[in-house]
Request: fold
Amino acid sequence: MPDNRLTSSRESATFADQEVIRGEGGETHQVAGGDVPVLTTQQGIPVSDDQNSLKVGYRGPTALEDFHFREKIFHFDHERIPERVVHARGFGAHGFFEAYESLSDITRADLFQRAGEKTPAFVRFSTVAGNKGSADLARDVRGFAVKFYTQEGNWDLVGNNIPVFFIQDAIKFPDLIHAAKQEPDRGFPQAQTAHDNFWDFISLSPEAIHMSLWAMSDRTIPRSFRFMEGFGVHTFRLVNAEGKSTFVKFHWKPKLGMQSVVWNEALKINGADPDFHRRDLWNSIQAGDFPEWELGLQLFDEDFAEKFDFDVLDSTKIIPEEILPIRVVGRLVLDRCVDNFFAETEQVAFCTQNIVPGIDFTNDPLLQGRNFSYLDTQLKRLGSPNFTYLPINAPKRPVNHFQQDGHMAMVNPKGRANYEPNSWGGAAGGPREAPDVGFKSYPAEEQGPKLRIRPESFADHYSQARQFYKSQTPVEQTHIADAFTFELSKVKTVAIRARMVSHLLNVDQGLAQKVATGLRLEAMPKPADAARPTKDLPPSPALSILGNPPDTFKGRKVGILLSDGVDIDLVKGLKDAITAEGAMLEFVTPMVGGVKASDGTLIEGDEKINGAPSVVYDAVAVLLSDDGAKLLSKEATARDFVTDAFAHVKFIAYNAAAMPLLEKACVAADMDGGFTELKSAADAKTFITTCRKLRFWEREPKVKQV
Ligand code: HDD
Reply:
């Protein structure tokens, strides 16, 4: 019998597909499902009954001697470890870094020596402020932490998706984070900076203004981890075999281009699918659609650093790509999901201090402080200095040292020598240092008085903020003004709102005016006192997301709303066009069991209409029969599907029969260039080509009046 079903690109997994590895090995016994391992306690004692605790009498108390019960509850009680004090919510994946060329003239770091060489890597993406259970689409900076398992040890590049930071000196980090997270008396709001404490701190810290422009831009509501840039933020050093040092800034460029959602969409995604980003990464890797970034380097010497307008040790500043071009030197591919979230994503311990021969620090005071903080926090989180033996943290090369013991010592070398120098001779004496190949710090010359100061060269807080704003397209500038207005509208203290606007006056008069108007401030404040006047730097076009569109719809997802009786050829044509573009699709149906198309084909639903609002898709199609349109135009969730797609300036494909729904959704009278009618299967290609623009931004001024 022919298989009369049409499924989307997403194949559903069954229990039988899943590899059962829990309790592999040991004795087995027959149960209804087949031959399975015998359930045991942690001590390996076979368990006869896991459903009932041991009681005295038929209805009596539980016996203290029930070791199985006690062990099970004891272990459960201790399952949690402290969540990260920042970046608690994250999602990781495995992959590799591949060098495009040898950089041996610049660095002796092993992973950069041979073109084509692949180095295993693990990446963890995260939000900063939210707790572990918060939602993915919080307006927040995203962490982009990469662990490279090089042949000369682990290198951790612990970066963000924004190239600058809020503060210049690590001593301010606890204050910044306290202000950003939930307020201590009430324990809310979580996972958002839209509250008094955060903006109070920022408005009292002019150094934070540049990053707050980035934070209020669309960069902090990315569509996917796959469509974000990443940055090492600080200036680091690369050191070659001759000991020559070159300064470097690290950049990650997503192969599929950048993309963000709009704010109203972000708010709704958080309700519809709080796991939106992690699900997206998981699904794309499982589908074999491996996310990829290119590693870019900005390389410069002391001479450039001297001449540059800003201090290269100041993490609140960028070096524009237009001044110092990025050299692309390799790619990062994520091709494997974790097997166990806790073991890998939760226990992975990134430390900025993890560098390898050929890479070195600079005196950036933020970086210097981080080097203390990360090691310290891992001890707190993971509970033992032996966290380096956890498989996710262990280098993929042998380790040899004289450190020993401690909680959970899992690797315990044999032999007598646990110190050096010793006179046990040869291999029995254990490892010895190797001056020729071992890590050597770059011998930078340092001297001067001990001072608690902020260098004068760090004092210009507004020029690059202005440059960032000027580099955005008008649509993006509007989003920045809207984001400031939204966040400051949640701030109850009017004086804080006004103080923020006083800083924006030093950035751009028009921006300050828009925000002041949006807040209905009674009077425009005076510009904030500035240590340095704002310079009018030329725009850096590379800083805009919309100014650098991807020109492909690859990796994006279309939600197709269907009803019974839908024209099967239209559905097939659309599916083919989406698949040919390398994009994904999901069928959204009134009932998850699917719909019967015009020819009787069962089209299986991926989602029921109330479980997949259009916010979880990049573009939508509404393909209905006359009866289907009659039914769905009375269904609020179907109307929202269309209304939201329209409000979020998405491309919408429809067939003529769907018009009653479009009318009920109040979009029929405003149909614009973002709509494509699918008269025949051939029109689907036109629709997908149109979707490459990602959003129909021309519509936005018409759907936003306040
Ligand atoms: Fe940090 C975690 C990125 C400044 C202290 N940070 C953490 C993570 C990322 C960053 C991506 C999550 C790592 C993971 O997935 O496990 N942090 C940054 C960037 C910064 C920065 C790009 C500035 C350029 N951080 C910073 C400072 C301090 C910290 C100045 C303290 C002085 N960060 C920490 C931490 C965390 C952390 C408390 C929490 C959990 C962890 O380290 O492992 O140590």
Observations:
- Residues 365-382 form the longest helix (18 residues).
